């Protein structure tokens, strides 16, 4: 390519950039108008509207016929919406900190970077920050494709009045991180219990006799490994950058498709989008056929169940509660009918939230 060609193409790029910038500014001004319209309707409106954001992102994917993958375009539009939201009012999101956790990555993936964040110390604290209004939303891990349900999160749902407003899928790739580059000098590994479980086979094969110490989060593990000689942490690459650690081994998770599903906690009910999910908490009477009748309510109403998980009720020994995810929205007639039928036969049915299904 001649120098002239390059100059000419760059001039075209400058031209396109000018148009993009003008259009983004135009969009941000429209978002300000939306804010005024919302204030005219309500005194304290919600500026974050997941149902509208899901609709915009689905349109982006539908329109896409170009060279950029759907995920790339989605990320760009998520950042644009994040910036437009911040023009209206910056939202505050709590997550399981410190900086560098997978939860923080999930927060930015979903809300973009134009937000304020609170790094909470535990999953319970994330719920608490939202409950007392320090944060408008919270992001917590709920299940992992290798290890199953995150019990601390499920247990918090028993007591909370918060709603699930959204879900986030995040592929998880673990690394072994340390100050040293010499793996043989490591005598202790820090990690979150879920990360130890997701890397069990790798650890047993590669570091069988090294002490394993469970901490509250992966980033906390990385922070400790950056302060203590002879220690390593299991965490992601973001934590390696933040805590200036070497990656001794990458991709140490036992399953290549290792993915964690996070949920967004909030106080608002989300309108239906046509592609939704509903999360329920159920307490079944301890009698014959209970589970059979539960399944029957969904099958009869042609509702697909995407998850069922049981946890001890913590009220009585050997008494269990169920966490169920179904396709559809509580406003869909089939879903509300199934829930009414369930209520007629189970002790407790708590609607944890209906929200847009993640794009998979
Ligand atoms: O449509 C709205 O309600 C808006 O506030 C605009 C907008 C956007 O940027 O498109 C911004 C924030 C909402 O979460 C959804 C969409």
Automatic annotation (TrEMBL):
It is found in: Cytoplasm. SMART domains: CM_2. Residues 92-267 form the Prephenate dehydratase domain. Residues 1-92 form the Chorismate mutase domain. Residues 279-356 form the ACT domain. It holds the Pfam family CM_2. Coiled coil: none annotated. InterPro entries: ACT-like_dom_sf, ACT_dom, Chor_mutase/pphenate_deHydtase, Chorismate_II_sf, CM_dom_sf, CM_II_prokaryot, G/b/e-P-prot_chorismate_mutase, Preph_deHydtase. GO terms for molecular function: chorismate mutase activity; prephenate dehydratase activity. Pathway: Metabolic intermediate biosynthesis; prephenate biosynthesis; prephenate from chorismate: step 1/1; Amino-acid biosynthesis; L-phenylalanine biosynthesis; phenylpyruvate from prephenate: step 1/1. It catalyses: prephenate + H(+) = 3-phenylpyruvate + CO2 + H2O; chorismate = prephenate. The record marks 260 as: Essential for prephenate dehydratase activity. PANTHER family: PREPHENATE DEHYDRATASE P PROTEIN (PTHR21022), PREPHENATE DEHYDRATASE-RELATED (PTHR21022:SF19). This is Bifunctional chorismate mutase/prephenate dehydratase. The gene is pheA.
